[in-house]
Structure prediction request, 275 residues.
Amino acid sequence: MKRSSPSQVALGLAVATCATLALAQPRYESAAPTAGGKTSQQANSTADKTLYQSIDYVNKNKPGPQVIVIPGEIKSSNATFLQKFTANNIADFGELELSNANFKVLERSNLGPVLREFEIAYNLGDPQAARKYLGMGKMKTTKYVVKFDILKTEQVAAAQQSFDGGTLGQMAGLLGAFSGSRGGAMAGAVGGTAVGSVHSGESTSVWVIGMRYKIINAETTEQLAQGYTEEKMEVGATSGGALGVNNSQQGGAGLDTMVQRLIQKSVWEIDSKYK
Prediction:
């Protein structure tokens, strides 16, 4: 019988350990009383489409240079967006995706007040002062400074349609009443009630959100490149019912999801062109 070498045994143990860790990954069940029901299945089906999806960046296997992400600008005047997001939120998404694309990201939280001073100098148009701060400590080996700006968040289209069976129900009742027979009148009344209870509605709104990225040379503080991308955000709702049974459904990708998708598209371009 052939005996396994120590290296083969070690490899086998490593594989077994990885498999055990994968199996031990936490799994959570819904605590909602509707879990597993029809409404739960419909809602979860919609939610599944908004879950985070990792991107297979083209040059992911190629290590990228050291970069710093600074908070960009939000030039949208949309109140909902401004209440929900800050430039720091967007920069956090940018750090995450650039790290996933194998760039060496210096996290802002680890750089202290030096980064803030650099941001102020850069935004005031003082390249000499900005360069001075980039030459300090961990920032010395930084090649690029990257920022992501939101330039547009606007509702560009909306549509709705509805049906109410009330009028048709009244007509059915009247036709039964004029039929000349008691049976026809009763049938008309029942039919009118049934038709009159039918109602349905549907509405959809579409937003366009636009993002710009800028790549700045950390040594000269000159802008090396920029790009722009847009995504549509569709939000919809449906409702309907008949004979006292009603149903409704609403959903769509939220602002968090849309911002992260725009960041992913921007980082995909940065990874493809400027690594």
